[in-house]
Write a structure and sequence with these properties.
31% helix, alpha/beta, two-stranded antiparallel sheet, single chain
Length: 144
């Protein structure tokens, strides 16, 4: 079966909320009114939502755990792909000489921290370094 026909079949089976109310981030400081919300259960679901413009109006926005306090959740009139069910940590590897952790789009940062803590002995130092860098920044580049 060709890849496009697999995606076409996935589009028929997606869990879709065609009349969502208001979506909020975790602390309700950001609200959005998308036309459609897709509950993705696989990468094929995400592909199907992006490819089917008739069912899923643009822009299409992938939302992971909705824990951002920035406006990235806003997608009024478009399609939101809820990736919270895609919450697996796929493993650790090397890219360009740097260690990376491969995760799906719905993984929460706390789960990544716990996973790393169990595997990397220097993880506590990395978290301290990241926390200090965050505290020393005056403004996040995402809020400019």
């Amino acid at each position: 079966m060709a890849a496009s026909s697999v995606v076409d079949e996935a589009a028929k089976m997606l869990t879709v909320d065609a009349s969502p109310a208001v979506m909020h981030n975790w602390n309700h400081c950001i609200a959005s009114r998308p036309a459609v919300v897709v509950r993705a259960m696989s990468a094929e679901d995400v592909c199907a939502a992006v490819r089917d413009a008739a069912r899923f109006p643009s822009p299409v926005l992938a939302v992971g755990s909705a824990h951002s306090v920035t406006g990235v959740l806003r997608n009024d009139g478009g399609t939101v792909v809820d990736m919270s069910a895609l919450d697996s940590i796929l493993g650790m590897g090397t890219v360009g000489g740097k260690e990376v952790v491969r995760v799906q789009g719905g993984v929460k940062l706390a789960a990544i921290h716990k996973w790393l803590d169990a595997r990397v002995s220097r993880f506590w130092f990395l978290m301290l370094f990241v926390s200090l860098c965050f505290l020393l920044r005056r403004r996040s580049p995402l809020t400019k």
